[in-house]
Amino acid sequence: MITVGCEDVMTLTEATRILPRRRRRRPVNVSTLHRWATRGLRGVHLETIQVGGTKCTSREALQRFFDALPSASKQPGKGAPVSATNAGAVERAVADLEGMGM
Questions:
Q1: Residue-range domain boundaries for the chain
Q2: Rounded CA gap, 100 and 102, in Å?
Q3: Among 51, 60, 81, 84, fewest CB within 10 Å belongs to which?
């Protein structure tokens, strides 16, 4: 949990400026941080706080997020999330496997 008085709080836009650049030396897009906060990555969510109408995070929250990612990828059952468009295909495949006795 982010503690305002104890952590270096910044907007998500400001946070993109301190992250390492990605492909072709492009900065991380702010939408990526929004996605990490809402949907998460490998089951891990970026901590945020709402300051007025602005979503914020902290250096420490980013560090906790990145520290948690390696252990999250090793946990069983923490694979890639199934999108709504693929959910029907997954259900059919599970039904087929159960029909085969697997």
A1: 9-99
A2: 6
A3: 84
